[in-house]
Design brief:
Layout: H1 2-32, H2 37-58, H3 66-92
Helix pairs in contact: 1-2
């Protein structure tokens, strides 16, 4: 019985490994398309998904307690907030022309 479980886990790990390789290849492919900002909006979610899968399976976070998942959720919230905060600041903060003057 245990031998069967180890084979199933090995097959799962190999599948995940090839999915990670495929996502990395997709990121490289998108970066070569030179989509500028649109490329970033395509690459970042793929990279986040890739990191989540790596952490969940290969760092064994799937077996950890609820506290670890809450800390990870807080980390994701802080990361997304810090990622989009500069964009929000540029769009909604009043600016004077002198702030854009190059010296």
């Amino acid at each position: 019985m245990e031998d069967h479980l180890q084979k199933d886990e090995f097959k799962r790990d190999i599948l995940i490994y090839f999915c990670i390789i495929a996502m990395t290849g997709l990121i490289v492919f998108i970066s070569h398309l030179q989509l500028k900002v649109a490329g970033i909006f395509l690459i970042v979610p793929i990279a986040i998904l890739e990191a989540g899968i790596l952490g969940y399976y290969f760092m064994h976070l799937m077996t950890k307690k609820r506290t670890v998942h809450l800390i990870l959720l807080l980390t994701v919230i802080v990361f997304v907030t810090l990622l989009f905060w500069p964009a929000w600041d540029v769009v909604y903060s009043p600016r004077t022309p002198s702030e854009f003057t190059k010296y």
